[in-house]
Amino acid sequence: MDLSQQPPRRWSDTLAGMMWLPRLIDKVRAFQADTLGTYAYPSALDQSFMRRFQLTPAYIERLVRDAASDETIGTAIRARIQLSDEEVHRRCAIFRDKYRLAFAVLDRDDGYVRGLGYPLPQFLQRPLWRWYQRWSAQKASATSV
Question: Which InterPro entries does the UniProt record give (predicted)?
């Protein structure tokens, strides 16, 4: 997956009943292939999602590297977290509601919806994004979330 050429899957896409998971998989694949482009991994949203399900970047990265398909990844995660469908749905709903504004911005930035993305002048976007990527990388490592 080359995220410098196309966006990751939309935040609302689901796998194994979990929103954000397909997008996370795309970002991990791009991270492992060094094709993240302007995307950050693990971003603050990635980390929040993983915390909700007690997952770590190290676990996700290993799983994505070793699994043959998205379905295999989804099955392995569901087996690991051992939550009912209702609880997974509840946690995803809380995640969706908490970050509703961020998802609206992502939809616009990724081109899934028309309109302005980040409400910042173009000349400020690149330096702020570089700062965010450095901050995010310092905040999380493959062994710490």
Answer: DUF5069 (IPR031849)
pTM of the model as a whole: 0.80
Which residue range(s) make up the domain with 42? 14-139
* DSSP category for residue 115: S
- Percent of the chain whose predicted confidence (pLDDT) is above 90: 63
| Residue 144 domain flag | no
Instruction: Please report the pLDDT score of residue 113 as a whole number.
Output: 84
What is the length of the chain? 145
Side chain identity at 43, as an amino acid letter?
Answer: S
Q: Helices 44-52 and 85-98: crossing angle, nearest 10°?
A: 150
> Sign of torsion, CA 70 23 130 53?
negative
Token pair recorded at residue 12? 């609302």
Q: Is residue 3 part of a domain?
A: no
Q: Do 60 and 24 contact (CB within 8 A), yes or no?
A: yes
Number of other CB atoms surrounding residue 54 within 10 Å: 11
Element housing 18 (H / E): strand 18-19
With respect to residue 4, please indicate whether it lies within any of the assigned structural domains: no
